[in-house]
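Recall from the previous lesson that a structure prediction takes nothing but the amino acid sequence as input. Here we apply that procedure to 2-oxoisovalerate dehydrogenase subunit beta from Luteimonas aestuarii. The sequence below is the only information supplied.
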Amino acid sequence: MAGSKPAAKTETPAAITLIEAITQALAWEMRHDDSVLVLGEDVGVNGGVFRATAGLQATFGPERVLDTPLDETTIAGLTVGLAAQGMRPVAEAQFDGFVYPMVDHIVCHAARMRYRTRGRLHCPMVLRVPWGGGIRAPEHHSEANEAIFTNVPGLRVVMPSSPARAYGLLLAAIRDEDPVIYMEPKRIYRQYKELVPDDGEALPLDVCYVLRDGSDVTLVTWGAQVKETLEAAEKLAGEGISADVIDVATLKPLDFATIAESVAKTGRCVIVHEAPKTAGFGAEIAARLASESMYDLLAPVERVTGYDTHIPLFRLEMKYLPNVDKIIAAAKRTLAHS
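The prediction returns the following tokens.
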């Protein structure tokens, strides 16, 4: 049944959080595609550290919702093997900082499966990664490491920023024929609710989402920073400054055309991300703007990012992260150029 479009439901959609949207998407795919299974540390009996898989083992059984040993290397290797043999595994990396032992299997095997076999094999797997800071967690629990994966050919890197996009993008990721790194901003897991129909409708991958239309400056961001960026745009509007807001959503492959089209209209760009500034994914966007949109730019590209340090624990954690005031200041710096 993989790849088929199930019949839509007609029930009234519920207002749910981002983490509940993850659970809802997993349950839909598991009901409609027997090749989908979930595995990871504590995902079964306990329903996951963040309760993303709560109730799934009771519904689908321990053969499809597997509690694994506390061994990320084994989880990644098992996931790659299952995908290569026709299953559609969804693995959980529990925390972003725990993903590093998985990199060997993801980079050396999952990402190369099509290339290595000249298309004879592929690797339809999803690695769910609770991502980012802002929850006052210990070391290794607050990493913003998306740039590690955006540099790897053969991977998709996806990051939702709302319950509705979390649902639709996860469905699309599970149905994709190649490996997807699906990074979930845990700071907004339960921050707000949104009506999300449980209809099995996937959202398109590989496209940016324009969340607000403006004419003076383009604000580009992803993940948890979308909320602050929209708030900044609203405050800028109160001062007569009109901002486009773009949620990148799929970082790799990047829909640069949408960003370039916006910058051609506004002439200015501010890129907002939580990861450290040096070699963060924002640098790739800035480089492409410099090479492909230089004659549209009226001002240097600004970046609002984390610092080139490990995220500080705990009192300085929120100071490290981008915020509304920093975004507004960067936008105004671009407007200072005539």
